[in-house]
Amino acid sequence: MSSFEHPLLDDDAGPLVRPYTVSNGRTAPTAKLDLLSLVRSTGQLRPSQLEAEHAEALLLCREPISVAEVSAHLRLPAMVIKVLLSDLVDVGAIIAQAPDPAVDTTDQTVLEALLNGLQRRL
Amino acid sequence: MAYNGDSDHSPAQQSRMPTPIKLLVAGGFGVGKTTFVGSVSEIEPLSTEETITAASIGTDDLTGVGDKVTTTVALDFGRITLDPQHILYLFGTPGQDRFWFMWNELSDGAFGAVVLADTRRLEDCFPALDFFERRGTQFIVAVNEFDTGFHYEPEEVRAALDLKPNIPIVCCDARDPRSATLVLVTLTKHLMSAAASSVR
Ligand SMILES: Nc1nc2c(ncn2[C@@H]2O[C@H](COP(=O)(O)OP(=O)(O)OP(=O)(O)O)[C@@H](O)[C@H]2O)c(=O)[nH]1
Ligand SMILES: [Mg+2]
């Protein structure tokens, strides 16, 4: 993922600026996170040991959850959530698993799990 | 909901993170993508704002920082927990054509796609069809039947869209969870047979 220094200078970035203060003004996450990266709490830190937004994010990570979902639940742009979650990775509070870039989209075992899971909902 | 502070996450457990399966829902403006994603999802329809750089247009030159175009798009997505090891994530592609360049990023690693079509404006799904054909992403076409639309037989739609005979075409009501889920079942069966026939 590329650097996000410049968007903040955009004219229309006005309303977006405030959330970035959450992550101390940093706009580039140290861990490489994708919308579909899954994150999960390691149990090594309690939410109460963290500041508000980090604590809220950590609470959502009790079960494996995607970066996209954390973003939607906390109503913060994905870019901000990536920085928050990457902080949590840095302090060992969560682990992250990036989607496999070489994922085999023809894997019959996975496709069968997909089919069965869908049919159970009918 | 108690905080599970003392579970120990051994490396063995870490390797048991679920596998995310990504499917896309594409189609023209206002065709029912958001509705479709919302009706199959087990969670309330969610949306996230993602910042996208145009530098990701099919090239690997990320050094041209000077003329990088950055834009923020709202993405809809839904989730279905298939089993403890598999989570389906369904992403609605942004309808506006000017965001076509982010489909590369979105479609990386996608297992397949549903292209939604509206019989009142069939041609609106051409960009999506072209895109998936070019990328080699497997897809099916689902005709979202609006009350005011004409009813076409699937074969008429196939002719109008110039689709290959092996690409399934189904009708659906994007507002109906069962109907939308059946579309995904058809897509999955298509993916399975495409995968089987690509094994030589
Ligand atoms: N009658 C009928 N209306 C539908 C159906 N699906 C969606 N709609 C309505 O059509 C409108 C557009 O649906 P959306 O789901 O927002 O379409 P979209 O593709 O997400 O639109 P954009 O994101 O703006 O491109 C909404 O008012 C829906 O309620 C359907 O199957 N039948
Ligand atoms: Mg929409």
From TrEMBL, chain A:
Pfam family, one: DUF742
Native organism: Glycomyces lechevalierae
InterPro entries tied to this protein: DUF742
Protein name: DUF742 domain-containing protein
TrEMBL record, chain B:
Pfam families linked: ATP_bind_1
Database matches in InterPro entries: Gliding_Motility_GTPase, Gpn, P-loop_NTPase
Domain of life: Bacteria
Keyword Nucleotide-binding: yes
Keywords: GTP-binding, Hydrolase, Nucleotide-binding
Database matches in SUPFAM superfamilies: P-loop containing nucleoside triphosphate hydrolases
Sequence similarity: Belongs to the GPN-loop GTPase family.
Official protein name in the record: ATP/GTP-binding protein
